[in-house]
């Protein structure tokens, strides 16, 4: 008698980047001390995203997580309300955007003036450039570990995660096996975009990441809040 074939375990992530935020409009670093949530445009984007989920074309959501930053949490709340999804939001600190430490609240112009950001992508990925900030490798590890823990807790579930462009970029880099020193590949997901990833694992093949879609903003196409129509 032979053992049964190993059963594959799957967790599916629906990663949502937040809507336009006040700190984006103001051009400042939006860390825990400064982020004040969504702009009026961002709230409309999140509302439209929620209506897309209400239409029934998206996967059924079993579990919801969010970054603790107000722009991500507000986007997640608006999505759930607009889609009539009665689910609790699990706030996970390690889903926070790339932390910039003492630069929180500074304008991006001030950041460039105060800190040496020259050749940022090519510098040692294990050393933070700004005091109190993440290193690139540390940020990648934080995001990867958070997603792995969530996947292990919610096997065979579809998990919606309200988060940030950096978190989505880190997840995609992990999925495609890009090292933290990789600098010539840039990912820039739009606000309220949907990225869909799976983690599949079994004893014979190990763990595999599968990307079903990236940066899907179909719900905003043709609206007055489409980020693709914003001036460069």
Which helices and strands appear, and what pairs or packs with what?
Elements: E1 9-17, H1 22-26, H2 40-54, E2 63-66, H3 70-83, E3 89-91, H4 108-114, H5 136-153, E4 158-163, H6 165-175, E5 194-202, E6 206-216
Parallel strand pairs: 1-4, 2-3, 2-4
Antiparallel strand pairs: 1-5, 5-6
In a few lines, what is going on in this structure?
Helix content is about 30%, strand content about 20%. The chain has about 230 residues and is α/β, with parallel strands linked by helices. The protein has a single domain (about 10-220), classed as Rossmann fold, CATH 3.40.50.
Architecture overview:
The protein has 232 residues and is an alpha/beta fold. The protein has a single domain, classed as 3-Layer(aba) Sandwich (Rossmann fold), CATH 3.40.50.1240. It has helices spanning 22-26, 40-54, 70-83, 108-114, 136-153, 165-175; strands at residues 9-17, 63-66, 89-91, 158-163, 194-202, 206-216. A six-stranded mixed beta sheet has the order 3-2-4-1-5-6. α2 (40-54) packs parallel to α3 (70-83) and α5 crosses α6 (165-175). The longest helix has 18 residues, at 136-153. The mean pLDDT is 91.
């Amino acid at each position: 008698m032979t053992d049964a074939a190993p059963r594959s375990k799957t967790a599916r992530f629906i990663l949502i980047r937040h809507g336009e935020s006040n700190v984006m409009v103001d051009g400042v670093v939006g860390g825990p001390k400064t982020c004040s949530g969504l702009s009026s445009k961002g709230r409309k984007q999140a509302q439209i995203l929620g209506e897309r989920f209400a239409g029934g074309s998206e996967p059924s959501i079993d579990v919801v997580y969010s970054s603790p930053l107000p722009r991500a949490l507000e986007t997640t709340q608006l999505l759930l309300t607009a889609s009539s999804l009665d689910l609790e939001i699990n706030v996970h600190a390690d889903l926070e955007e790339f932390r910039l430490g003492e630069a929180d609240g500074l304008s991006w112009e001030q950041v460039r003036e105060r800190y040496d950001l020259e050749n940022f992508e090519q510098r040692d990925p294990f050393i933070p450039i700004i005091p109190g900030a993440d290193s690139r490798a540390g940020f990648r590890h934080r995001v990867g570990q958070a997603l792995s823990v969530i996947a292990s807790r919610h096997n065979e579930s579809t998990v919606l995660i309200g988060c940030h462009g950096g978190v989505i970029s880190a997840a995609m880099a992990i999925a495609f096996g890009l090292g933290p020193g990789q600098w010539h590949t840039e990912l820039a997901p739009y606000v309220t975009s949907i990225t869909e990833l799976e983690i599949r694992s079994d004893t014979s093949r190990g763990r595999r990441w599968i990307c079903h879609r990236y940066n899907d903003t179909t719900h905003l196409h043709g609206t007055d809040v489409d980020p693709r129509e914003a001036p460069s």
